[in-house]
Structures are given as C-alpha cells and as structure tokens.
C-alpha cells in the first residue's frame, strides 16, 4: 500500500492508559485513518523504544524521518501504580499472544494406543507394497535379453 507513492506516508503509534492505537496517513491528505485499536494492553516499564526501516530482502527504501516521543504525566491511584509495577511481560486482556499458549494436555491411553496401532499398520502396509514393487522390478530385469 505504500510502494511507489509520490508523497510521504505517516504512522502514529499511541499507548495511553493501557490502550494501543496505530493510525496511518498513506493518502497524502494529512488525514489519519485507524489501523488498529487494542484496549487492555499492559506493557512493562524500563524498556527502550526502537525502530528499523530494514525490510528483509532490501527491495524497498524506507526512511524514518523523525520520531517524537512523549511521556505523559497522569495521576494514578496506588492500586494502578502497584498493578503497573507487576507487569513483567507484555499482556493484552482477553487476547493470547503468539508463543504464549497454554501447555497441551497429555494424550489419553486410548489415543496413544490408536496412534501407535495405526502407525504400525501403515508401516507394515508400506513394507508389503515395497516388497511387491521390488519383486516386480526383479522380474522385469530378468526378462531382458542381451
């Protein structure tokens, strides 16, 4: 959407009161359009903000012209202050982040038995087919007259 345009494109990322909002201006009209709006985002404190314009295969040229970072001073209750200090990993309410899945339940005995049984049946079937194909090949190779 931003390739080969004759005007600059802009991106705004806001994080205010546990709400992450991303807005874009790719039409060159200086009008912001919502890209994403995610409430309930809890970010840990003490990390740094970084950015990169590398696209991987370096087929595009993206220039980061400027970054404007603001820290807003807001009044917080002691409960909010304590809750914000306890965040160690980024968390979003009612959303599972990739790589943060719950561990899988172990398989039941019946499921494990069925998997092993059908795997063995498939292995025996493959061996039988292999032997039949090998015998046919041997029979064909004996019929050649030189």
Automatic annotation (TrEMBL):
Signal peptide: none annotated. GO terms for biological process: endoplasmic reticulum to Golgi vesicle-mediated transport. It holds the Pfam family Lectin_leg-like. The keyword Transmembrane helix applies. It is found in: Membrane. Its main location: membrane. It comes from the Eukaryota. GO terms for molecular function: D-mannose binding. One of its GO terms (cellular component) is endoplasmic reticulum-Golgi intermediate compartment. Gene3D superfamilies: 2.60.120.200. Keywords: Membrane, Signal, Transmembrane, Transmembrane helix. It is a single-pass type I membrane protein. The keyword Zinc-finger does not apply. The chain crosses the membrane at residues 110-134. InterPro entries: ConA-like_dom_sf, Intracellular_Lectin-GPT, Lectin_leg. PROSITE patterns: L_LECTIN_LIKE. Residues 1-72 form the L-type lectin-like domain. This is LMA2L protein.
């Amino acid at each position: 959407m931003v390739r080969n345009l004759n005007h600059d494109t802009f991106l705004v990322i806001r994080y205010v009161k546990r709400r992450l909002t991303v807005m874009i201006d790719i039409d060159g009209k200086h009008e912001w359009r919502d890209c994403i709006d995610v409430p309930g985002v809890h970010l840990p404190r003490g990390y740094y903000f970084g950015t990169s314009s590398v696209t991987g295969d370096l087929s595009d040229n993206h220039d980061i012209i400027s970054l404007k970072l603001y820290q807003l001073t807001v009044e917080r209750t002691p409960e909010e202050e304590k809750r914000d200090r306890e965040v160690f990993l980024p968390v979003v309410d009612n959303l599972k982040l990739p790589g943060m899945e719950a561990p899988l339940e172990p398989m039941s005995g019946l499921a494990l038995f069925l998997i092993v049984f059908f795997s063995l049946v498939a292995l025996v079937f493959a061996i039988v087919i292999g032997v039949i194909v090998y015998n046919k090949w041997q029979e064909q190779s004996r019929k050649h007259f030189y």
